[in-house]
Amino acid sequence: MARTGRPPKYPTELTLEWIEAQSTVNAETGCWLWNGVLHNGRPVAGHWHGYIHRQALRLKQGFINQYACHTCDNYRCVNPDHLYDGTQSQNMIDVSQRSPRNDYCRKLTVEEVKEIRAKYAKHGSLTALALEYRVGAPNIHAIVNRRSWRHV
User: Fold this and answer.
1) pLDDT for 36-89, tens place per residue?
2) Where are the domains of the chain?
């Protein structure tokens, strides 16, 4: 059995059991949340292994063509059952369709801009408004400070 703690020395020694042992299993979602080092928000283990979610998918199906895409949209998840082999464009489309967080290409209407300014004047939460209107907080900040949508 693979040791816990430090990653195996070579990628060929990496096992799904070791990956699961280094993770916390979320009972609700089934995600294996990586407890190790994150690089740019992605799970890694040593310079030999690269991103652990890619290695988990490789161990499950034997290969990876391009990307290890998440069906759960949780980048810390390394559960191979939550991953599929795909392309960058497939990944971007899937994330934009599933994720309620932000849609940075979304166009606001004049009515929405007026609502944003009125709501901000009442309780002033950029983050809450950004989540509600599915745009970035900097976009909301620019609207309420009239750096954008000046004509409204």
Assistant:
1) 888 877 788 766 667 888 888 888 888 887 888 888 878 889 999 999 998 888
2) 11-98, 101-152
Q: What is the CA radius of gyration of the chain?
A: 21
Distance of alpha carbon 82 from alpha carbon 73, whole angstroms: 9
Among 3, 18, 92, 5, smallest CA distance to 55 is for: 18
Alpha carbon 119 to its chain centroid, in Å, reads 29
Sign of torsion over alpha carbons 108, 109, 110, 116: negative
Question: What does pTM read for this prediction?
Answer: 0.57
Q: Tokens representing 53?
A: 């979610």
Model confidence pLDDT, tens digit, residues 95-115: 777 765 545 556 788 999 999
Encoded tokens for 83 = 């991953």
Between CA 26 and CA 89 the distance in angstroms is 28
> Which two tokens mark 149?
């949508």
